[in-house]
Amino acid sequence: MFIFFKNWRRNHLLKRYPLNDALWQETVSRLHLLHGLTAEELARLRRWVTLFLQRKSMNAAGGLVLTDSMRMIIAAQACLPILNLDLDYYDGWVEIIVYPDTFVPAREYRDEIGLVHHTRTPLSGEAWHGGPLILSWHDAENIHTAHGHNVVVHEFAHKLDMLNGPADGFPPLHANMDRLAWSTTFSTAFQDFCHRITMGHTSSIDAYAAETPAEFFAVLSEVFFENPLALVSDYPKVYEQLNLFYRQDPLRRLG
Hints:
There is one protein chain. The chain has two domains: 1-147, CATH 1.10.472.150; 168-255, Collagenase (Catalytic Domain), CATH 3.40.390. The chain is 49% helix and 10% strand. It contains eleven helices and six strands. The strands form two sheets. Strands 1-2-6-5 form a four-stranded mixed beta sheet. A two-stranded antiparallel sheet has the order 3-4. Helix 2 packs across helix 4, helix 6 crosses helix 8 and helix 8 (213-226) crosses helix 9 (228-234). It is globular and about 55 Å long.
């Protein structure tokens, strides 16, 4: 009964709130990481984007004025990781806050001897466990070249990671996936990447991936969709695990 009602409600929303055709075509043409999707895949992505825009509240901050085009560009990038999964993977939270550029939240933490420190670090994105997701529009729209960076994919990868608790680089895996294989693959790759960064080796993968296992998963998810050849070249086993998790093969799709 629940599945029937869910499908009925989704079909109702799809009919009542169709996407603007011109804006959709413009979005698809602008986002290079959507190139190579089949007509069937684009239709499925359009379905997720339509429902996503109805289920999530996207609000501007810092004087930004959000347009329908901007919302669609963010939504399309957000829905690509769940293309072959389900919109339910983004359940449990509602709000997306969009700043015009990097934002500087005030942070407070207590060190091991009890001293309280205050920090203000510029960010291009942030995902809260059980709370909102925050983006910089300047970074979200920087989508013209396959440079391996994508703040939208990065933050939504964190949201997937948080489905089973605080982000730790170990999202809930599918029934056909091996937890030991995931753990071994990512742990080995993370240690190797941290060693490379420590030794000053250059890499096409953002050094921020060495921060924590959670950031490693999020950054490599960016590379998986944006520049899959770089990921296959450096960490082919990680690519295989992400291929199983996202149920997509961007390397084949993007040629």
